[in-house]
Design a protein that fits this description.
Layout: H1 6-10, H2 18-32, H3 42-56, H4 59-68, H5 88-98, H6 104-107, E1 116-122, H7 124-129, E2 131-142, E3 157-159, E4 168-175, E5 178-185, E6 194-196, E7 208-219, E8 228-231, E9 247-253, E10 260-262, E11 265-273, H8 274-279, E12 281-285, E13 292-296, E14 305-308, E15 324-331, H9 338-349, H10 353-361, H11 368-376
Helix pairs in contact: 2-3, 9-11
Length: 379
Amino acid sequence: MSKRDYYEVLGVTQSATDDELKSAYRKLAKKYHPDVNKEPGADEKFKEVTEAYNVLTDKQKRAAYDRFGHAGMSGAGANPFEGFAGMGGFSDIFEQFFGGMGTASQQRRVQKGADIKTTVVLSFEEAVFGTEKEVVVNRYDTCGRCKGNRSEPGSETARCEVCKGTGEIRRTQNSIFGQFVNVTPCDRCHGEGRVIVTPCKECRGEGRVRVSKPLMVKIPAGIDANRQIRISGEGEAGPRGTMPGNLYVNIVVKEHPLFHRKENDILLDLPLNIWQATLGDKVEVPTVDGNIELDVKPGSQNGEVIRLRDKGVPFLQGNGRGDQLVTLRVTIPKKLTEEQRRLLQELARTMPREQIGKREKDGDDKGFFSRIRDALGSN
């Protein structure tokens, strides 16, 4: 991809003065600096405007560029950012223009406390309808004695002698573009500018203590296994009184002896004997809302599914519920009394055998009466 014209990048004419170049760069660098602009591609634009500025403010390089274009930048100076690790050089330029905006202050970003995790085990019904569960978390909490400021109550802090109370260490380094100032947080006071003289007796100057704390966690209706619930601010307290992290609750759901879940539908296998499937029946079916009476139609087939509307799992996001899908499982008796065998044999003789043969020939599952014959051991 070819580079854009440096003058076009900065939005200036070829006759632009150093002051005009500086003003244009100041505006664009402030707009695209990665510590300020988090939009995708902002860092690339910042590199582009910095490269253009560095070339056009160097009289020798600008003359070569005006005569030969980008081809004149080959060899020495081909990479205007050579000698800088990562974005350090950019931040130093930014420091010169904007007095530290986005550099030292960014490096002293508040470090929040660590996130912690725990696990909650739910019954099938609790996952369906929601509940509240108590969990006990072991974590660092803000010290109650010093309220997180790390000093013994009533004592004073002292100015850091390493950074003279600024919280910053400034180091000047030379480069091909001149001198740049590298600003880092002070290692002695961690960027605070003050040091603890008398540490808190409770937390020993840490600002936090280890505790076990019970919490009530609200479980929403419809949650599924392997989901997480985030509780903001219930993680560990941050170091030196900074903001706490978050608590993440992992969800585990026990298996149910009858029900299985598929997204928001509940699956149930309903066993029927051959007489119920053939003649029809009214049977009691369990649901998560309680037992209901189900009308099994005469001639119901094995594997047939009956849908019970709104008897499934509530939708986690939104209103309504899924369905309960009842799959009929017709069972064939393995043992018969002599009377049952005689009656079934009489029934089998009344059935049209050619239909049974046709289903078997076509590769279908065995028909109902074909299975009866198998159960009877008849030829």
